[in-house]
Structure formats: structure tokens, C-alpha cells
């Protein structure tokens, strides 16, 4: 799964999008919840946009 997101001046995620789904609604929802809980230091310039890949391994 791939997620794109932007951290705003407060250090919180201000926007997020799944750019490649995991194919499972519950895993996609878990990834969204992870990003909603992020509290980072305020980025230089006020905003920081990036993307990440999350790999789930289910046994």
C-alpha cells in the first residue's frame, strides 16, 4: 500500500490519500488511523509533503 500525506505547521497530518490500496478495507483504515495519530515536529517552511509504503504481513 502507498500513502501520500502532508504535515502542516502544527506537526499534524493535514491531508492524506491512499495512492495504492492494500486491497483490504480494514488494512487501509488502519493505515489512515496511523497517519491521523502522527504528531511530528513542525516542519521548516510550515508544510512537508511526502509518501510512504506500508507493507503488511499476515500470517
From TrEMBL:
NCBIfam families named among the record's database cross-references = tonB_Cterm
Where located? Membrane
Source organism per entry reads: Rhodoblastus acidophilus (Rhodopseudomonas acidophila)
| Entry-linked Pfam families | TonB_2
Q: Name one GO cellular component term.
A: membrane
Q: How does the protein associate with the membrane? A: Single-pass membrane protein
Return the protein name: TonB family protein
State the InterPro entries in the record.
Answer: TonB/TolA_C (IPR006260), TonB_C (IPR037682)
Q: Tell me which domain of life the UniProt entry assigns to the organism this sequence originates from.
A: Bacteria
Name the principal localization, coarsely classed.
membrane
A GO BP term, please? transmembrane transport
Start and end of every TonB C-terminal domain? Answer: 1-59
Q: Which UniProt keywords apply?
A: Membrane, Transmembrane, Transmembrane helix
